[in-house]
Amino acid sequence: MRTPRWVRSIVILPIAIVVLGTSQYGAEALPPPVWKPLTVPSALPGQYCGGEPQDARGLPLDLNAECRHVYPSSTGAAAIRQDAYGWVCKVPKQPDKSPNMQAACQRIYGTNAIATLVGIGVNDWRCLRPADVSGHAVPVLLFPVEKLNMSEAPFVTAALGRLNNLMGGIRRFYRERTFAALGAPTAVRGTNAFVLPTSTSAKDWQNLAICTDQNICSSRGNPVPFDRYGFHNRVLQELANGGWSGLVQKSSVRVGGFVTLGSSFPEPPTWLGAASGGAYFSQPPSNSYAECGVSANNPPAYENAFYAAGHEFGHTMGLPHTDQYGVQLPANWQQSIMYTGKGTQSLFFPFEVDRLRPFLTNW
Q: Does the predicted TM-score (pTM) go above 0.85?
């Protein structure tokens, strides 16, 4: 499959990111070491399966105008394939030219705009500006470009729906818990999920996530060197390559990177790798497959994804672990979503609400 120059030229380079267990807001960047995945479903049907609406975001591109701007003699853009990289600029008596989607968005919407996807089809390109996402949580599906073909389109559409449900449920959790404690409406806003094709392969994503645990990495023969933050840092690199770091620098957005291995894989996607730092949180491959339904009890996979994403999203909002407040803790304190939690039945205590309130008020 041929991809345009700006995708083929992506190289994963080391970047100066040092994560020492805390985010820039002073919150731990990792789940507590005693956490283990739940193996039982939720006690109630449809518990936090979506429920919080998202704000639809994504501005259109004019690729015909872009082609004619870059190549004055161009007759415009044409789709020669149906996947996202199927667009070309047609220029008489010259080979087809691949349009630069990032440049196209910036030409229309300003230098801070980025190009992103709401699927993997030829018509799924959108533009985002910092103002479009500021004050919102934005889930991004990191999809290996090696698997970018239209047979994967139904899977990607379903995965985006799962992320919208998951983050909708998490945002509802925080809204309800803060409302109950404060007695006033509290918005925890979010957008629809987007897709970012990655140069990192499905195999490498799985290995990077597995090797955030030293013992498991060693038992697998160290497919990559052990690095507790290797998976998270790779997520950050891919997001930066896709322009998301520019949105973060120019807005108050919170970005969740949800890695997927595609519709088929040689072994179950791992649950290892969750982490956070600053405005970003990273989610392991398993969490992009977690499904829920409003009329059925949530399966364990959804309960675990809810905890992992809700916990790391909490860190990006400035929340530390529950045992780091210096207050008398209740007997059930470990069930807080900011400690080991209990899936969708996780707790959130008044002293944690007090810590979150300034962030939500000013977000």
A: yes
